[in-house]
Write a structure and sequence with these properties.
Blueprint (H helix, E strand, L loop, with lengths): L1 H7 L4 H8 L3 H9 L6 H10 L4 H10 L18 H15 L4 E4 L5 E4 L21 H6 L11 H19 L2 H11 L9 H4 L9 E5 L2 E10 L7 H5 L1 E7 L2 H8 L4
Antiparallel strand pairs: 1-2, 1-5, 3-4, 4-5
């Protein structure tokens, strides 16, 4: 498992040894099972390799140690998770009238503010049955896709982001989700053409809402010092107006 994560980070044993101060011989023994690493060694190496907390727990279990990182429910009031939840709730409430979602590792929507109703107004009811998946919501032909003016550009961005997540996390569930998204009509693969957006400050989400085209700039945020699996995997997807017309439309919807 350690060898797989090392290779995912494109490091040789010698490079990892030089950067961490752990002898290449000891690393070799760990990777081949000839030496059982200490709990602290596993935590040290996985921290350096940027292994997600969920997978760090898996490596600890493989070495017959107890998991180091909790995996609490967001509604757990008996721990500091309540402060995570309160931060999420405060952010969502204060972000109005602009839309914002909170999604988990599998892109399932954990929470959203009232302003997201503007985006999901014409979405098929079955796509809004929990757990609502944000990627499916955006790219499914019964979701937002028919209303996204720049679907090729936006779908390529989402797939590129998902592909990077798969490379970082090695999650089979995400690979399956990516395959599903790629099967939708109108979805475009990330390629040289869709990546050639030089000259722009950002690639907006352009979406029709009633009689108007709305343009949004999206911001993605995470908790920087999370030591719980749930908190570490939360992603806040906030949308901001990308032109004056969108700002006005959010305040005064057309009839």
């Amino acid at each position: 498992m350690l060898r797989e994560w090392r290779k995912r980070r494109h490091l040789s044993q010698l490079e990892l040894s030089a950067r961490t101060g752990v002898s290449s011989r000891h690393l070799s023994y760990i990777e081949t099972g000839r030496s059982r690493p200490s709990r602290q060694m596993i935590l040290y190496l996985t921290e350096y390799l940027g292994v997600p907390l969920r997978e760090r727990n898996a490596l600890l279990l493989a070495a017959q140690y107890a998991p180091a990182y909790s995996h609490r429910a967001l509604d757990d009031n008996a721990s500091d998770m309540r402060y995570v939840r309160e931060a999420v709730e405060r952010l969502l409430a204060s972000h109005g009238p602009y839309p914002a979602f909170v999604i988990d590792r599998q892109w399932d929507v954990v929470a959203r503010n009232e302003s997201t109703a503007l985006l999901v107004e014409d979405v098929a009811p079955e796509l809004l049955i929990p757990p609502v998946n944000a990627l499916r919501l955006a790219l499914h032909p019964s979701g937002l896709a028919p209303r996204i003016v720049n679907l090729a550009e936006w779908s390529a961005y989402l797939l590129r982001r998902l592909d990077h997540q798969i490379l970082a996390n090695a999650d089979a569930g995400l690979t399956k989700l990516a395959d599903e998204a790629r099967s939708y009509p109108g979805v475009v693969e990330p390629d040289q053409e869709t990546a050639n957006l030089t000259g722009q400050v950002f690639a907006p989400l352009r979406i029709m809402s009633g009689c108007r085209e709305l343009r949004f700039l999206n911001m993605v945020a995470t908790f920087g010092t999370a030591l719980d699996v749930t908190a570490a995997e939360l992603v806040i997807e906030a949308f901001y107006p990308a032109d004056p017309a969108t700002s006005q439309a959010l305040e005064k919807p057309c009839k």
